[in-house]
Amino acid sequence: MPEILIGVGSNIGDRTEWIKGSLHRIRDDGKIQLWRNSHLRLYPPLGGMKQREFLNGVFVGYTPLMPLSLLEYLKKVERQFCRRPTYKWGPRTLDLDILFYGKSVLTLPRLCVPHRSFLKREFALELAAEVCPRLKHPVVGRTCQELWREFAEKKHHNSPPASPGWPR
Fold first, then answer.
1. Contact predicate 8/94, CB 8 Å
2. In a domain, 12, yes or no
3. Three-state DSSP state, 157
4. Which positions are annotated as active-site residues?
5. H or E element, residue 3
6. CATH, residue 10
7. Which range of residues forms the domain containing residue 117?
8. Could you give the residue ranges of the DSSP H alpha helices within 5-143?
9. Residue 2 DSSP class
10. Separation CA 38–CA 56 (nearest Å)
């Protein structure tokens, strides 16, 4: 089974509860064997639209699902947690993104793996470095830790504090 890296986020309502609830649902469904998760951290929303900060996390697991089936499953979980279609980068109760799917490199109309914005997203880089620092990006060939360090140096990063609400 391929090792997968999933990004999770929420910026509506009780963000911690949406994320914890989705994690429990995923564990209970058995379609993904969760192995490890990052802390949850607050990050500003992307896209310039005024909205609440996102609470983000990353988890690592294994799945027998093929990439498109995994995408459909994650979209189903989002809907179960009241995710409604809005505009790009709009507010949401739950956002689940496939960041990595093993060493696969896919460019499909509905799915790009690794996630096409992984190298530009602060939360993805920082939290991936926390949870799987030696995992190599299948395209650029550098570890999550190396990628995060380079990103942080460019931004002169000062990370927000970790949230204690994420289950370990």
1. yes
2. yes
3. coil
4. 83, 92, 95, 97
5. strand 3-10
6. 3.30.70.560
7. 3-163
8. 15-29, 67-80, 122-131
9. -
10. 9
